[in-house]
Amino acid sequence: MATISERKDDQGVRIGWQVRIRKQGYPQQIKTFRAKAEAQAWAKATESDMERGSWRDTSDSDRTTLGEAFQKYADEVTITKKEQGSELAKIHQWQSRALARISLSRIGGKEVAAAIKDMEAEGKSANTIRLHLAVLSHLYNIARTEWGMSNLSNPVEFVRKPKLPQGRDRRLVGNEEARLLEACVQSRNQWLSPVVRFALETAMRAGEIVATEDSPGLLWKHVDLSKRVAHLPETKNGSARDVPLSPAAVAVLKDLPRSVDGRVFPTNYNACVKLAYTRARERAGIEGLTFHDLRHEATSRFFEKGLNPMQVAAITGHKTLQMLKRYTHLKAEDLAKLLG
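Structure (tokenized):
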């Protein structure tokens, strides 16, 4: 049975109406409203839900803000993941938004759509925004399934996500490869040249070759030169894989000195890829060729050598053919040669 009573401040001035619902088999519900009509409407709807057996306790989701929920998520979920750094950065950005001060139950598609517009105004790419939304979506799913907030609906499901651009089709053309490799040899970073040549032979990601915040890069203990295989125990998609090494890739490795820390390429992403590679590309007079484009190039070359999609996926680690397609752009003249 619901009781509605006035709420007054210390001066005796009415500031709202408090609803208290007591019903056998349900926890006591207390909520305050500014207008009596709102209090009556809520009491009626809540009692009706209880009678039908469809009532869900919203107290936790009502009093937990998005910022607080993300802190709990970071402490319980993110901490178990391999790439914690990038996810924590996204969480901190969510916590810095005005949305973070709103309770989970009050956030809907409208609020998330507004956040998307803010991210677009900040210059974030469509893919970056989608990654931020993925973290928010997972938070709501965890809150519903593991934190007892079964009343919640996932607001990310009600918004239009930014459309991803077509996959990049940038490949090495003309004498760009020779110019790039020459510029890499001239780099002050002695590891840049072998790193670039190794990337072109293996289609490995930068973080699988050199050290990042979340990965030590390729280690000698995971390389078997006699079998021509490099083992990657942890990768971006969460699965281990073995990368076959071409004769050229083996030659790169055999020319390297052994480092005391066990890393094949004792350099890091910032020094080698972000700085040294960018400078080498500029010296070579090459525009628009990112380090990740080398993975595109290597993947396409696998197909041009006659490997089938399953074989290429085993090398590159792509889990779906659709993803593999985005990274693969075959040269028509090379396909023509395969036709005889």
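The two ends are 84 Å apart (CA to CA). The chain has three domains: 2-55, 63-158, 176-338.
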